[in-house]
Amino acid sequence: MATITKETVPSQSTVKEKIHGMLGVNRQDAKLSLVLISIAFIAFLLGGILGLVQGLNRAGLFELPSWLNYYQVLTGHGVLLVLVFSTTFTIGYFYAAFSHTLGGLLPKVRKMGWAGLGLMVIGVVFVATTIIMGDASVMYTFYPPMQASPWFYVGLVFLVLGIWLYAFGAFINVAHWRKNHRGEHLPLLAYFGVGVFVLLFIGSFGVTAEVLYIIPWAFGWIDTINVMLTRTLFWSFGHTLVNIWYLAAVSSWYVAIPKLIGGKVFNDSLARLVVILSVVLNITGGFHHQIIDPGINEGIKFMHVFMSLSIGFPSMMTAFAMFATFERTGRKKGAKGLLGWVKVLPWGDVRFLAPMIAMISFIPAGAGGIAQTNNQLDQVVHNTMWIVGHFHLTLGVSVVVSFCGIVYWLVPHLSKRVLTPKMNKLGVIQTLIWTLGMIFMAGSMHIVGLAGSPRRTSYTTYGDNATALGWDPYLFFLAIGGTLLIIGCVLMFYIVFHLMFKAPKGETAFPIAEQEEGAHATPYWTERWTVWIILMLAIVAMAYVIPLVDMIFNAPPGSPPFRTW
Amino acid sequence: MKIHRAEEIWLIIGIAIIVISMAITGYQAFALGMAPPSGMEHIDPQKVDDTAPFNNPGVFQTGENEYEVVMTLQIFSFTPNKIEIPAGSEVTFTMTSKDVVHGFQVAGTNINAMVVPGYVQTITQKFDELGEYLVLCNEYCGAGHQLMATTIIVK
Lengths: 565, 155
Ligand code: HEM
Ligand SMILES: [Cu+2]
Ligand SMILES: [Cu+2]
Hints:
The structure holds 2 protein chains of 2 kinds.
Chain A: E1 7-8, H1 15-23, H2 27-58, H3 70-101, H4 107-132, H5 150-180, H6 188-203, H7 205-218, H8 227-260, H9 268-280, H10 298-309, H11 312-332, H12 340-344, H13 350-373, H14 375-381, H15 385-415, H16 421-450, H17 466-469, H18 472-501, E2 522-523, H19 529-553
Antiparallel strand pairs in A: 1-2
Helix pairs in contact in A: 2-3, 2-4, 2-18, 3-4, 3-5, 3-8, 3-15, 4-5, 5-6, 5-7, 6-8, 6-9, 7-8, 8-11, 8-13, 8-15, 9-11, 13-15, 13-16, 15-16, 15-18, 16-18
Chain B: H1 5-31, E1 41-42, E2 58-63, E3 66-74, E4 77-79, E5 83-85, E6 89-97, E7 102-106, E8 112-115, E9 119-127, E10 131-136, E11 149-154
Parallel strand pairs in B: 3-6, 5-11
Antiparallel strand pairs in B: 1-9, 2-3, 3-4, 6-9, 7-8, 7-10, 10-11
Bound molecules: protoporphyrin IX containing FE and copper (II) ion (2 copies).
């Protein structure tokens, strides 16, 4: 591969840091992370309740009262879960990880963290208020020329500014650590964190430009808007965002799980390569949300099949690394035969069970993703319930269940408490109920979507149309899944806050797996972030410059605003 | 950096999946003409009613067994409403939106296209089987989105 300039073993750290490492996350930093995680799970509970309302409505079992609109509910569900829950959890998790692995956050960075939180809260208040007042039933994708209250978009600006502050904080802390540890490798978990914040920062440029363009239109200062431009800018971000959550989940698979099952990091260099590839190849995947849009020609759409599929490559590396870790650890514990290692894994330990289920679910979820990225196959399922089934598998299981798995050790670590066997058992039950609920819900969503049932549509039979009536049995299973899910949702909410305030006091370790003895040293080029960022920008330019220039300079007359709800 | 033999094989399989996907998708798109709808023609979204052919939406015979449906989409309806065509005909839908983004989907077929204001979107499909097809809007377009539907009758 590339020239190796300098090789060092990543875990060379000073004695002082070893002590820090044992002490874990700094107390003051822990508070910030706990607040972020609390917000995440409040959003999770609220979002879950709205999800149930949707599920029951779509099955025709629940008619919404006149003061509550299905599309208002769905906008809330999307915003709470895909923006608020995942962002706050990811940031809380990585800030704890930085504190633990880099010897505490710098006081300046901690302050930025609280300021970032303030900005995000202001943003959420604006967004939530406009949605509740019924002035922003535009979904989390807010496609123009539908136009929400201008304050909805102003709220989004605050949200983005908050995220940027966290990203800058992360970069400052990492740069400071590197200055004091010349020639050393960033700890693997912090390395994942850098990847995540690089993506959060650069990935949000598109949506920031979009929102800054919408705001003058929303206030009425400009009359019309370029619709395709806004859609394209949105998806450069929307797609990146979901992959960021996935990368956050994956970091716990690589770093925490081996430790929890008594194993070692499978291959430090390859793990870092996965981060690099996930960062470099990510943003351009956004076009797969526009495969059947007008205004983008067939050649560009074809190039984007490759851009989207390439992200499957690091996922396959991850799949290999995970199962290799399990096998190796199992054999060390004396497992025999081809699959003997499966039995010696700690299935009863929720800290293992949850992420394991998350990984397994990514096999069908990833396969579905690869299939629907191919242009003609996408045309079959685009905007049907199939897609909703797809992201409840990827986000609702792979990501959410991984995050829940993190909760069982991160929250007690931060709150200086312990996970009791009883809580562990409740966690196992929670994981199984959630998984079963998602199998029902996402399963029936996939089937009914193939049959043609559209997404983002409240209960309807289209005037007792026979085709639409044929969907009802599946939608009923969807509602059963949703009911199981709300039980899982409430249980998880209870578990998080129990671990935060009620569980017995004690010390819980921050699980960080070490490298195998005599492992090959990781090449130092993995630390060349400038190179990876330039490479990423080059690929983004390749993907976006031609279509964006075309959309801007060869645009049809713009659209005036509409409020259609 | 060392990579295991088994992992090499695994990753080659990964690359193969990507390459084969590309080959099939490319072949279907460019050799079989199955590329996804990508209308590039522009229209002023505020002047749809005055712009040909949308000033006269309807079903038009364009050849033997060939039809064109000129259609506008607006909250929360399709114009023309109720389309009838003989079995075995190839139908090209030429569409645009008079307001927000809509979706044009015919359940049970591969017809699925986004109809975005400012663009003329087209999609072609051969209807062989007799029956009634459900046409619906699959992009959220407002409070009455769940009502936006019509039918195509193939007889
Ligand atoms: C109690 C658990 C949940 C239930 C019952 C539920 C139910 C639903 C239903 C029925 C829809 C589709 C509505 C439609 O298209 O008409 C939906 C959409 C969605 N769900 Fe969930 N969901 C749950 C949890 C989650 C979680 C955990 C996430 C992500 C972290 C999530 C993310 C989304 C998103 C992004 C949408 C799409 C919103 C849109 O189309 O704008 N959901 N959910
Ligand atoms: Cu995507
Ligand atoms: Cu609609």
